[in-house]
Design a protein that fits this description.
Blueprint lengths: L22 H25 L12 H11 L7 H15 L6 H18 L13 H25 L17 H4 L1 E6 L4 E6 L18
Antiparallel strand pairs: 1-2
Length: about 210
């Protein structure tokens, strides 16, 4: 936990709208949770006396990443690998997919993860170097790809934007849960969905129909 660090929007995972993607949901989030977050920030800042001391090696990881790029003499350009990540995800983690397609995507993404470890930064200038930014962002891109396709492979159902033709139905008995992906070993775990609101009655989930 980092004092004073907040997340908002879908990444905050407050489980209000499920897999819905209506624009009015975003407005509701802004009005309700924006106000709640603002009030909490004011209260938190007043009570916060000081931040926890950082460890002595707090900046070593970032410096190591930069030094590795600066000392690179060979390897692929980040843009080439990034494009391959995008095309792989479009082919294996798109709207229409099945278990075989997803599993092939897992293997390809793991191969791409290895390629990201051998990036060459040709332009080593220090000012407005977009190539450096792209090379650094590549690490984030491959992690998002790994989390997406590995989590999809593990979930044996269809729910919201995750639609697997081999498992077309939603299964609340075993899969009404949030997926947690861990970088070390591509481990997948789960946590329960909070089904009881604070002030209103809970509405049980049901199949979405139009």
């Amino acid at each position: 936990m980092v004092n004073g660090f907040y997340t908002v929007g879908e990444c905050s995972c407050v489980s209000v709208h499920g897999a819905n993607r209506l624009g009015t949901n975003s407005l509701l989030d802004l009005v309700v949770f924006g106000r709640a977050a603002g009030n909490h920030i004011v209260k938190h800042v007043k009570e916060l006396k000081e931040h926890k001391p950082l460890p002595a090696d707090a900046g070593d990881f970032s410096l190591t990443r930069l030094n590795k790029l600066d000392k690179s003499t060979s390897g692929e350009y980040s843009q080439i690998v990034a494009n391959d990540i995008r095309s792989t995800m479009q082919s294996h983690a798109g709207v229409f997919r099945n278990s075989k397609v997803i599993q092939e995507g897992v293997e390809k993404v793991r191969e791409l993860a290895e390629r990201t470890r051998h990036i060459h930064l040709k332009d080593k200038s220090k000012v407005f170097n977009t190539a450096r930014v792209e090379a650094l962002e590549l690490a984030n891109l491959i992690e998002a790809a790994r989390a997406t396709v590995i989590s999809a492979d593990a979930r044996k159902e269809s729910r919201g934007a995750h639609a697997n033709a081999d498992f077309p139905n939603r299964e609340d008995t075993g899969w009404l849960c949030h997926t947690l992906w861990f970088r070390e070993g591509d481990r997948v775990a789960y946590k329960p969905v909070h089904m009881q609101p604070l002030t209103v009655k809970s509405i049980p989930p049901k199949p979405r129909s139009f």
